[in-house]
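Researcher: Go.
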Amino acid sequence: MSDKNRLRRARLVRRGLLYSLALALLILVLGGVGFWVLDPRVHTLADGLWLAFTTAATVGYGDIVPTTHLSRAFSVIVVLLGLAVLSLVTASLAAVFVDQEVEVEERQIERDLLREIGALREEVRALRAEVNAQAAHVSPHAGATAPSGLQRCPRSRFPEVLPRTPAPTGRSAL
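Model: Structure:
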């Protein structure tokens, strides 16, 4: 994966986390205001926010409870929204950690592939030197001709001579 795609993916994951946190905060604030307006026993906005938090988190300490039918119905909505949004926040946090782990793994695979490519290039250099050395030892004066595999092969022809190998499917044990 290119660096541009990695950055884009990381930005999207972080943006998703920020959006889900903002949505959770919005639901808690609206829930707090709703409880403050709907329930006569919730005297302050702080009490409404506390009730919204304990309701959304399904903790229910019991110190402040909805008392009217309307505030109880509202608490059902806050519970459902709270569960959904808190699940979304949890999933977004997990996505951040998974994305970091995937990036570390991709970088390790990239390092392994670069190391393997370097080893293959070195092997091709050694084989080229061996082929050229063997071709130089063949004596054209003795009436023998060099087999086609031992003739001097210029570097520009190696892509034609060597078959293309598919990319490795797994990591090699280098």
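Model: The domain at 1-135 is CATH 1.10.287.70 (Helix Hairpins).
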